[in-house]
Description:
Helix content: 25-40%
Number of helices: 1
Low-confidence stretches: none
Radius of gyration: 25 Å
Number of strands: 5
CATH class: Mainly Beta
Oligomer: single chain
Distance between the termini: 80 Å
CATH architecture: Roll
Number of domains: 1
Structural class: alpha+beta
CATH topology: SH3 type barrels
Largest sheet: 5 strands, antiparallel
Shape: elongated
Amino acid sequence: xxxxxxxxxxxxxxxxxxxxxxxxxxxxxxxxxxxxxxxxxxxxxxxxxxxxxxxxxxxxxxxxxxxxxxxxxxxxxxxxxxxxxxxxxxxxxxxxxxxxxxxxxxxxxxx
Length: 111
């Protein structure tokens, strides 16, 4: 990276540099958000860490411009940045072992 001699820049040049840096950071953030939004979908189970450091779980119920709305099992709704969410791995039937559904014999069934 180039070394920029800030001591020789005028106030107007420093302001222009600041504005260019901020614009670039916003562009990078938009790209990250768009990429994260594209990997998540409504109905998907996710987890995230809330502001108090507790891990929260829920299902995405709405896609907003910059966030996703997540509904947690306790009834609470969260607006969460997609970059802060992790998809939850769902257990497939094959991973649950041998599950056999039980049907009583015809003689025990009630009409």
